[in-house]
Each structure stands twice: as structure tokens, then as C-alpha cells.
Amino acid sequence: MPSDHAPDGAPGKPGLALELLVHGVGGTTPAEMLGDPRTVRITGDSTAAVHRRADDKDAEQHPEDHTGEPVPEAYCWSNLTSGNGARALWLILLPFMVANLAHWTRPASLGRCRTVRLHGLLVRLIALSLTVLLVAAVCEVALDLIAWQCAGAARCGQDRSWLAFMTAPRQPGASGGWWSQPGRRLALAAVLPAAVVALLWWLSHRTWSAYESQPPLEGTVPEDAPEADGRAPLSLPGFWYGKRLVARLRAAHTAIGFLTVAAALTAATTRHDRGPGGSAVLEACGRLLEGLVLVGAAWALFVVCRRGRKESEPDHRSDSLAVTALPGAALAVLLLAVVHSGWSRSGWTSRGTLPGDETFSVIAVLQGTLVVALGVLGLRLHRVTRVPRTALGGLASAAVGMLACALGGLLSGGVSQRVGDWLDGSGTPGHGGGDIEGPPTVLTWQASIIPVLLALVLLLACWFAFRVWRDARRLTDDVAAGYPGVVPDESRSRRIASAIARAGLTDRAPWLIATVAAATLVLGGVAVVGTLWTGQVPGEATNGAPDVVAGFADTVQTLGSWLVGFAFVLLLAWSRRAYKDASARRTIGILWDVGTFWPRCAHPFAPPCYAERAVPDLAWRMAMWTDRQPERQLVISGHSQGSVLAAAAVWQLDPGTRRQIALLTYGSPLERLYGRWFPAYFGPHRLAALHGGLECWRNLWRLTDPIGGPIRPETADTPEPGPPEECRGVDRGPLHDPLVYGRTRELPLPEPILAHGDYQADPAFAEERAGLLARLKARSRRSGERTEGVPRQPEPRQDRSENGSRVRAAQSEPGRPEA
């Protein structure tokens, strides 16, 4: 491994220059990034690593061989979000990921600390309700539909060999097997939802250890430092290390999952024990279990509400015993409920459905209330601190939170209805004449919403397709004007105009999400009202209505059930292909990578945050390259999502180190996507502060790019001095795409429309990179001239952090604030 501290330049002369390449969504190989099939790993592991060309392995020892161009290095992080096909199962956690995303989409705030904390609390409560909803849905399938209804109906259970051992006898009064008692069937079925909760806990714990437990660059910021002082949140030392919060949320959500299963068991047994023929002793035990469940739920709720994120320093501390013991205590309550449920009760038979139909209605009403409150807070924050181009005017968090609830509700309702249809054979659950009663009425209503939502999405897709067609026609005549001196070709112009029109759909995405979220809120309200008002499934609720209405209700109920089953299989197949096929992954990769870019701070069972590994990797690499060697230069070059990682890593550096670095971004969603949806973290004032702290930043973009766009930083004052006068601008574009309009002597074949890819093929890329290096070398010369003849200061002492990682020396330029 090369030595980062080998001398590669005399004092006052430019030293070795490094270009650190960071790829975007979909990933690529080191050979493709470096343009050489012979590459070597410099540092890192099989998950994420820095590579060089084999010829550049010892570049530090021979700087004279690299005076003309920088030494390229490729940071490959694609294995953090792809790999074996088993990771496709992470897409099942999509509702949790979207709920976590709602925390980060809050509007920017200025001195509204209490409102910001309340905003985070509401998002955490929405996330907690999703855990309850998921576990309750699994309980509905395992305990109610299978163990209670199907196994309790002799024909349904005995027609399925895998269920026959626990099926009730056909003849009344006959004795069945040991497992045929309803309480024992429920106790056995409780293994499935308990196993789901345990699996989620294990995945959260394992992925944290594998992906996110990386020590950041050390540094401390006063805990009471207000956000209004201009410090970017992404520059705080603890932003990418939230170990304690994830551990607390994991404990609370695991406990609430176990307690949900315990509550389902206890509700079924106590209903029997309180009736005629029930045991007073078992009834007393049931009341005690109900009290324990309530105490445990209040305990978990307190843990969720008590503490949010702490970013001023890495949170290494462990939680108290009251938090770490919470999952174990909840599991103990569940085991007691299993024993209580499995106790012998003579004369108990299973009829109808299990108690708890109201549970799903209560969850739906609670989620709707939380989403509305989140929207009110978002509007208040946006009104106080207006940031240009903020998505949905401050309602982004409410819309994203509503989508998370919708995904959870539709998934739970659809799966329950599909399992009910499967178990009932030729019958229709809820309509009579079948073997089972079917799922709760509200879940059937929610499943019936699915076709209506799909029809709405189809209408929106048709509208956007019309807009693309109209915009393409309007732009066709203007395309050739961008290429002076060419002969217009209508077919060529139409293809280019269509690419530009399709790329423009990205800017209309907020209204698509807002429309779907609003429709979901309204339809969810209709489902709850329909359940409470009629108490019947959609088909029965239309009895006496015109035949058209009744037929429509029956159609959407049946179609919703089948659509969920089809969508579930399609989701697994598509996600597995996406994580094994790079071309398929690029199709959906940007949305997935945006969701998993942010740390888990609302839902601990969300997919892991790859940035908590990638950002420290990049920050450590840049800090170690420039450490105590001001003659070195570094250009960090990021494409697409790689530009977001590069910006986040630069924010983690101290001001002195940033002045040795130039940033080159291309196809970057920093403003177009992150700046609009996450204004508190990537708003124009944040990007302007980052621009002012760097030696120089240049951004390349195209009109045909559906993801990247201009940066548009504000010109407002920032806490740090601005960049040199010759580097005041950030954006260069729009670049020509294709590079040439028709055939030329140099390019006799038609050039492709590159859109989001292959920015290096444009001559502007090499020009901007050369310009950045020239400015860095000029700064290095100026720095050397200022320090020539000045006695060399002793190097600062280096410490070690608690976990043995190296701590940066606290260095800053004269007159500049400490990092």
C-alpha cells in the first residue's frame, strides 16, 4: 500500500495531484472507471474500496512521472446497495424506508427548534404505527384466518394436509387432537408473527454492524450550537453515526412487535374466559396480561418519544438497562401469553372472527391524524423560513408519510384479502357460503382501494405522456438552432426534443406524489367510514344499490385481492433482477438509493444506510491525502448519486482541508432532487455555503438528463470566505447532447443521445478538470510563497479516539473558524 506521507513535492512547488472518482447509481467496475483493465485495490474491502491503475500503484514514490495529469483513483461502493439476490427482500421493507424518508424531507427552519423536534416525533410515531400495522397484519393471517377460522372449520382445515393436525373435529362434541383446541392453535400460530419480529430485529442489528458502524472523522461541536449560525447539518461530526438512536428505536419497535402478538392472543383468550363457562383464575391471569401489555406499550412509546437524533458528536454511549431490557421484557410477556392461551379450556370452539376488527380502523385513523398534523407543521416551518423551489411548499413530509402509510395499509389489506380468498376456495370471504368469514371488513375495503388507485395512476401517466408529446412537438423546431450552421433534420430534431421532454418529467414528480398522497388520504377515509357506517364489505354494502354500483364494488374487491398477489410476486422478481442486472437496477436505482442514502432515524427496520459507510470512507481518504501536505491537490469527481456522496464527504472536512480540494460534479441531483425535497440539508443556502468553503466547484449538466441539473447556489453571504473570483460560477451547461447534430468529417456516424451517462465523453469534462487542477496548483504556489522563509511549526500532536481510530489534528487557517 502506498504511503500517503511520502514527500512528493519541494516546498513552494505543486505536489502530486489526485482525482478521486465516485460513480453513481447502478455502479460500475474499477476497470471501467479508470479506463484500464489492470487495477489494484489501494484500501478498503470487498464491500467498498479505492482502486488505482496498476501503473499508478506507487505514484507517491515517483511524483515526477505524474506532473501533467492527476493520478486517478476510483471509489467503488456499488456492493453497499447491490450484491446477492437475497437483498431483494429488502424491498419488502419499502414502507419502513419511505417512513424514514419523511423525517428528512422537512422544510428548512430558522430557530424553530421545538417545532423541528415535534416534527421528528410525529414521524417516529408514524413509523411506530407501521410496525404495529405490519405485525397486526401477520397476526391476522396466521392467528385469525389460518388458526382460528380455517382450522376451526372442519372442511377448510381437513382439505389442507398441512393444517389437518390442528383442525377441529367434524362432529360436535368429538375430541380432536391435542392441537385442535382453539387456544393451542393460536399459541402455535403466534410463532409466525413472533418470528417476523425477531427476523426484523436481527436484520436491523446485522446491517448496522455490516454497513453503518463506521467511525466518522472525529471532532466536536457544542451541543447548543443553533442551526441558525450557518453550520450545515451534514458537517456535524455525528450526522453519519447514530448508533444510540438506532439501538433505542430497534429496542422499542421490537418490543412493540412482540406486545402486538401478545395482545392478539390475550384478547382472544380473555373474551372466552369472561363468557359463560370461563375460568375465574384464567380470567384474572388474562387481566394481568392485559395490564402488562399496556405497561410495556407505554414503556416502548416513552422510549420512542423521549429522544431524537444527536448530531453534534458521534453518539458512542450505550443505552440504560431500561432500554436494553425492553425487548426481553416484551418477549417474556409474549411467552406468558402463549402459555395462558395454550392452557386447556373445555368446550371452547372457534366461531366467527377473532376480536380486534377495530384495531385496523384505529390504526388508519391514527395515521391519518399524524399525517395531517405533520402537514400543518410543514406549512408553519415553510412559512417562517421560505426556501426557493421547495417541493410541495412544505407538505413534502406529509405526502411522503402518507405514502408510507398507504404502502403499509394496502400491503396488509391486500395480503389478508388474498390469503382469505385462497383459504376459502370457491367461496368469497365475507359474502357467506364459504368456509371462513374472511379478514376484517376494513382490510377488505383497503384492498378494494387498490384498483381505484391504479386507475388514478394510469390516468396521471396518460396525462404526463400527453405533456411529453406536446412539449416534444413544441421543442422540435428549436433543437437545430442550438447547433449553428447545421441543416435541420426533422427526425433527428424530434428524437432530441423527445429526450428533453422526457427529462423534464422529473420536475413534475412532486405533483404526482401529492396527487397520489391526497387520493390515498381521501380513499383511506372512505374505507374507514364505509367500515364503521355499514359494517359490511364493499359488495354487501351496496345491497339495494343499482346493479352498476354493486357490480363495481364486487369487481374492485376481487381485483384488489388478485392484484396484491400478482404485485407481491412481481416485486420479488423485479427486485431480484434489479440487484443482479445493472441495466435493470439503473431504472429504479435512483429512487432506491435516495431512500437508503439517509440514516435510519425514524424506523430502525428500514433498509441500511449505505452513506454511513461511504461518506466516512471518502472523508477519511481525502483527509489522509492532504494531511500536513499543503502542496498536494485533490479533485473529487462525482457522477449522479456519487456527487451527493462527494458533497456530503466534503462537508465533513475542516475548512483548511476543503481549501485543498476542488469538486467536479456531473449529472448531479444535488439541487434538482435533493435541494427541492430535502431543503433543510441541501437547500440553496447550504449549497452556497459549501461552494464558498471550497477552492472551486464546477458542475456539468444536460437538458436531456432526467436526473442531473444545475446547482443554482445562492449568492448570500456564507460563514466562510467565498471562492476565487475566477471560480464564482458553478454550472456549465446545458451541454450539447448529442455532441454533434449530424455527420461530420471527424464523426461520420450519428452520435448517440447520452442523457444521464458518459459525461467524460464531452470535451467540457476534460476542460473543467484541467481548470480545477490549475487553480489548485496556483493556490499551492501562493501558499508556498507565503510560507517561504517562515520557521516550520512543530506538527500538532495526534490523539486516538475511544475506538482506536485516528483523530484529525485541529488545524485551521489564520482568521478562520475552527472545524
TrEMBL record:
The chain crosses the membrane at residues 88-106, 118-138, 186-203, 251-268, 288-308, 320-339, 359-379, 391-411, 445-466, 511-535, 555-575. Residues 47-71, 708-739, 776-819 are annotated as: Disordered. The keyword Ribosomal protein does not apply. Residues 52-68, 725-735, 782-805 have a biased composition (Basic and acidic residues). InterPro entries: AB_hydrolase_fold (IPR029058). Keywords: Membrane, Transmembrane, Transmembrane helix. This is Integral membrane protein. It comes from Streptomyces oryzae.
